Amino acid sequence: MATAAASSEESQNLKHVCRQCYKAATKKCSACCGAPNADQSIVDTQWYCGTECQKADWINRKSACKIAQTRKMLYRAGHTLQMGICMYREELFDLFIESVERKDGDIVLVEGWYDSPDLFFPFPSSLFPDEDEKRAVLLHQCCDDAPAYMYKLILMMLQGKSNMCSCL
Ligand SMILES: [Zn+2]
Ligand SMILES: [Zn+2]
User: Fold this and answer.
1) CA–centroid distance, residue 89 to ligand 1 (Å)
2) Minimal CA–CA distance to 70: which of 110, 37, 109, 115?
3) What is the Å distance from ligand 2's center to 84 Cα?
4) Which ligand minimizes its atom distance to the CA of 69?
5) What is the pLDDT along the chain (168 residues), one digit of tens a residue?
6) Disulfide check for 65: which of 2, 32, 91, 100 has CB 3.0–4.6 Å away?
7) pTM tops 0.85, yes or no
8) Which ligand approaches the C-alpha of residue 25 most closely?
């Protein structure tokens, strides 16, 4: 079984052509692989037969690869920060949601009555099985405090990268 999987993967890899010498390629540039483009599509994978061809092509690819790497880093930082804000919000959720209605792509949160001095309520995850919808609800009416308190973290994550952002 393992051999079949390996040979299947190998034959798939052989479908790729080296950017530099046009021979069969099995290696890809890991630096920009999977990076998002400005339009949210994914950067085309750059295939090579080996490091020599990758080095030889670097003069042509350097600029695009560096931009892709920077965008990849920015998206990762943004994703991490958004996750942090959502976790903060889920722990300190200040709406008492009784039910939810979905109308024409909108999510309508129906708040219930409560007789409690509590300021925060357990987030009703069971009402939002879809992760995107859950994130949208968590970020809805989100106080600016969380991103503001994360300012130092943002600075740390993007340290030395801010000058590269202008080329994106
Ligand atoms: Zn090559
Ligand atoms: Zn690259």
Assistant:
1) 50
2) 37
3) 29
4) 2
5) 333 333 445 555 468 999 999 999 999 999 999 999 888 899 999 999 999 999 999 999 999 999 999 899 888 888 888 888 888 889 888 889 999 999 998 999 999 888 888 888 999 999 999 999 999 899 887 766 766 777 777 777 777 665 554 444
6) 32
7) no
8) 1
